[in-house]
């Protein structure tokens, strides 16, 4: 085995194959044991090292579990880790741990330095530094008390080794090229005077004495400022000697570096790091020309624009030497055709890369992605490096790869990259070669083309299906074909598999396949062929997300999760993915998601963005999110597998209640005088909206979700919430959303009947009657209202309901032009509710149409007295608008103008823009009667803009006619 602590935590078998250590706590335990170098470690020491001061009560049992996992992950018969009542002990051989090998190189370098064997010092320090891959233990969750002492010791040792290495370079006359490296070290460690002196000497010997003196002056001022003392005498003396051009500072002739380091022990060892890359591009060395591209599908369809963009970029003229290497990336969810597109592009352009084409599957979405170090090992062997000559260590391998590929024109396709860190070490160091990358994550930190693949357009999706299943079969049943395309959601893999299933079953029609795909819960089960499954392709991203969620949760929670195997606890993007799939298939916002997950919006937004980055969720607009239909099907299946029925039901109920309380609050702003469904005031999920615009904007954003939520609630058995939500949506759907009005109230009626609540049924019938009336069918609407009458008649305590429905019937007769019948029903309504201002306003309108203007004004005076006494300003504003209509009909246009303006003043205070637009329309008419045409047109123009925005098509048409006639 090989264990690496000098950088990210690495565990490899003897052949260099990575071993995945499953959880952060297990990695922490193994790291603690490795830090003790095989010595026994007590239980208390391990507990403190892993958990710090917050050791859980279950720590001992948890450690037993982690040891069992480690033994399984290491797969060496279980004798690696010994557990005794006293504690733990890890068996580590001499050459298995990079820290041990580093210390051995340092010890031998010290001996060689004392002997002034500078070639040996250079080789040994180079070997020691090659073991470093980054910050020690950078990805192991350990308390600072455990990590920091080790990190400080190793960092100090590394700096000492660097000093000795540069000292050897200077003694061997190799000062050219090290000044820049030393300048970086001086900048990072300005008080380390050895680096300053080495920089000065390297600059002096490189013919830059002025820069050497400047380096001393900068260091002197820094040391004085920070420490209040002068530099050490040795540095001062070196400064004096450079000033006097001391000839003894002249460099010795450079000697050739040793290419292979001495072994770290007297016994031979395998895979030791090499301090200098082996030069394989010398004359006579073999240069293999790999041709590793997979075949490109003959039926490649769609993505022409993306293909042209990539090929066009690759076909550009050569860039100058040293130019930035461009990395062309394609990202998208599983099954979207990323690899197919890149392979196609690579084949079209491969002639421009005569030195070879490399294809490397990085396995980024698997539970054990290929490490950069392992990937480089494969790349080096592909380029002809013998296995025994492949250096160990990420930096050494990356340097050798860049050396080998320099000056060559190669095309490298890195498939299924996990993240930027996985591919960055695999990039060439200079232009000439090209790199193509596919990933399910968005990789935004590289220059070059970046394409996010989404669903295929409908025409391309149909062509792809027809190319596999046959044009005749697809054309024979166009409606069934549309169903299949909709079920596949434009996903190329799904379309290929659907077409393959049809091609393999000549007896099936497209309708047969459509039926199987659209049967509830079957779509993912049907989309397969041979070893290809849409669910498998999609689930890989989820499994990686689940693993990351589990590791993150374990690193943050001291107590082990006791949930089911697929359950990640109460939080995290994996749980969010599952439960959000239970929502309707429409775009949703962070607030709705937070309600489903029962978590704060800030955390939920982070999870949603993580899902977007993983291409498990789409973001059609900032702050809005939506599932691809097949990913939502996967989310639902995973929720059924991983979350209890109670948890799923609660998630749906929380979402429905969020919709219900939001719609109620918005209705309070859009129609303040409207009758609203009584809700539990103590359980309100949101506060009031600030004004009409905010409420209307919320309705506009959430419209699809709200409409679908009515059906979702009914299907989930939340019948009371379903009809209540439909009723609460009335104030919005009346503003031109007639289809939504009909849909929600039809489902709401079924839900009301399911509850057995006659009042709820009457409410929904009343809403449907109003919808029919609004769409210009008053005679049909009367039928709905009379059914409501039959429910309420003869039942005590229903006067308010009876008054309202009689008023509605009167409105139907007004629209039919039967003003006498309308007046009769208004009077019946007032018998039930004598002070119903809505009925009084309508009665005045009917009287006006009958030419009884004075009676109409008397009725309005009566209504206004009630409105002012009860401070019903909304109804008063409507009454003033009706007063304007009556006065205008009585040829009293100047008074009508005043009435409309009073109405507008109140409506602006209340924020009812629709009512305000109606009043503006009337005001324009009155001004036109007074031949004040410019003012009239201004009123009509403003009213038209609002009516169009609010969706009132009927009045919009009338206003356009007025403006055209003007």
Summarize the structure in short:
The protein is mainly α.
What do you see in this structure?
The structure is a single chain. The chain has 966 residues and is mainly α. Helix content is 60%, strand content 6%. The chain is built from 42 helices and 15 strands. The strands form 5 sheets. The chain has a 5-stranded parallel β-sheet with strand order 7-8-9-6-10, with helices on both faces. Strands 3-5-4 form a 3-stranded antiparallel β-sheet. The longest helix is centred in the first third of the chain and has 28 residues, at 144-171. It is elongated. The termini are far apart.
Based on secondary structure, the structural category is mainly alpha
Principal-axes geometry comes out as elongated
Query: What share of the residues lie within helices?
Result: 55-70%
Total count of helical runs of at least 4 residues: 42
Strand content: 5-15%
**Rg calc:** 39 Å
Strand order of the largest sheet: 7-8-9-6-10
Taking the sheet with the most strands, its summary is:
5 strands, parallel
- Low-confidence spans: 256-285, 557-569
Assembly category: single chain
Outline the fold blueprint.
Elements: E1 2-4, E2 10-12, H1 24-35, E3 41-42, H2 43-51, H3 59-74, E4 81-84, E5 87-90, H4 98-114, H5 118-130, H6 144-171, H7 179-188, H8 193-205, H9 209-227, H10 233-243, H11 304-314, E6 327-331, H12 338-349, E7 357-361, H13 372-382, H14 394-405, E8 411-417, H15 420-423, E9 434-439, E10 450-452, H16 458-469, H17 471-476, H18 478-488, H19 492-504, H20 510-518, H21 523-526, E11 528-529, E12 532-533, H22 534-556, H23 573-580, E13 588-589, H24 590-597, H25 601-613, E14 618-621, E15 624-626, H26 629-642, H27 645-670, H28 692-715, H29 719-728, H30 730-733, H31 738-755, H32 758-774, H33 778-792, H34 799-816, H35 819-832, H36 837-849, H37 853-870, H38 873-889, H39 893-910, H40 913-929, H41 933-950, H42 953-965
Parallel strand pairs: 6-9, 6-10, 7-8, 8-9
Antiparallel strand pairs: 1-2, 3-5, 4-5, 11-12, 13-15, 14-15
